[in-house]
Amino acid sequence: MEQFRQSMLDLIIQTSTNLPADVRRAMSAILDKEEPGSRAAMALSTIARNIDMASDNEGAICQDTGMPTFKIKTPVGVNQLKMKEDILWAIIEATKRGKLRPNTVDSVTGKNSGNNIGSGAPIFYWEQWDRDDIEVKLVLKGGGCENKNIQYSLPSVLEHLGKAGRDLEGVRKCILHAVWQAQGQGCSVGAIGVAIGSDRASGYANAKEQLFRELDDTNPDPALAQLEDYIMEHSNTLNIGPMGFGGNSTLIGCKIGSYHRLPASYFVSVAYDCWAFRRLGVHIDPATGSITEWKYRDMNPAAMAKTEGIPLTGGEVVLQSPITEEQVRSLKVGDIVLISGRMFTGRDALHGYLMENEAPVDMNGGVLYHCGPVMLKDDSGEWHVKAAGPTTSIREEPYQAHVIQKFGIRAVIGKGGMGPKTLQGMKDFGAVYLNAIGGAAQYYAETVKKVTGVHFLEEFGVPEALWQFEVEGFAAIVTMDAHGNSLHAEVLDDSAARLANLELKVLQ
Ligand code: SF4
């Protein structure tokens, strides 16, 4: 098994940088489904460009490289302890090389381990089988989509759908509700794995297990196959669209499994994965540890992008940071902006800190980017951005209005939108919310021309630190303006009305 370490490193790097063949097919199929020039089409063309950049540069597709989850099958007699040791080495090495972001945080101290190893991390599922080779499958699923997982206990009453009973009709309502509640926050377009039954804990694990099925396979159970088709067809009529911008494509996959349950329990567990659906696998020769076959992987992926990301028309608003109040008050929902100048990153830890403390830098007129980048330091000590897409903004809802007021922030960039408190704060104090394209980590990393500083690196770790960037031509869309308008609120209400009007009782 001498080659096993290297094989695991190859598996991790390929999974982080190269989308599987079935996901590529699904993404290609929806590229032309949105109206040319629409926000949805713009989001998809940026995603396509990012997918190409990631595989061309061997860079992380998304900066959130998730919680690595391994499913491993071994013949009887294989030394699993040694295999685990080699996989941990490969995880640490991939982190050092900037292919994985240091993503593992101690839940009590808040300290990031810095190498993706921690208590219960990474996640392993081991199984023996009667074949004589080893199979290792890996999924990297980020926090934005993980946070949109949801579990239902039937019977239940669901918003906009009414009573959901203990049958496939009830299951159907739960799944539709799961898609609706995710909106764009899990970086739609997404794919869902669903487990009907099981207990609470295994329900989520089984839902995630469904994500190891290829998106274009057919469920062997005809009733579940019919339900999968129904969910695909009807979810895509909800007008949630890519990034929650509205549009014809909301889901690229729905995979449902049924599991036995206790008579008293009826759980429906849903695992939501984003378009950056990173899943690959390998077969391994147990004598040498080398890879004999790849699973899911497209060995010669064709370019996906037909344009250069967000197509620019000349009608974009150019903003040089620091930005004035007058400039932001002139913006309205739907405007596309191109930002140049200074930008700060800040996520949960920084927002919590700023509520009680002063900022270490002057943020007046500034642009605050909800982003936890992948960073690498070179031998001369200079930092470089390896991946830098937006993170889910709604987590900062309790803090954002106060932070805008206290520090004179004029623009907040993130994905998925924010709530009414932030919208009111933007109106009162003069600020806008800019939605960047979630997961487009390579695309946005290219706009960072220089890293000019970092604060709280020791205390908060790489993803949560305050990074100071000098950017050029950072493109984003105004989705919440200083006049009280929010595209996210509009799409939420419109999709709720569509959800409530879907045909009932369509299942046989
Ligand atoms: S694409 Fe979005 S949801 Fe997926 S891992 Fe990246 S930031 Fe998270």
Walk me through this protein's architecture:
Helices cover 32% and strands 24% of the residues. The chain is α/β, with parallel strands linked by helices and 508 residues long. The chain has a 5-stranded mixed sheet with strand order 2-1-3-10-11. Strands 13-14-17-18-20 form a 5-stranded mixed beta barrel. β13, α10 (348-356) and β14 (367-369) form a beta-alpha-beta unit. α10 (348-356) crosses α11 (397-407). The longest helix has 19 residues, at 39-57. The chain is globular, with a radius of gyration of 23 Å. The mean pLDDT is 96. Iron/sulfur cluster binds at residues 62, 64, 142, 144-145, 186-187, 274, 276, 389, 391, 438-439.
In DSSP terms, counting alpha (H) and pi (I) runs of 4 or more, how many helices?
15
Radius of gyration: 23 Å
The geometry reads as globular
The number of distinct β-strands equals: 20
List the ions, cofactors and other small molecules found in this model. iron/sulfur cluster
Q: How would a textbook summarize the main sheet?
A: 5 strands, mixed
List low-pLDDT spans: none
Structural class by SSE content: alpha/beta
- C-alpha end-to-end distance: 51 Å
Average pLDDT value?
Answer: 96
Question: In percent terms, what proportion of residues is strand?
Answer: 15-25%
Fraction in helix? 25-40%
Sheet with the most strands: spatial strand order: 2-1-3-10-11
Offer a concise description of the structure.
By secondary structure, the chain is of the alpha/beta class.
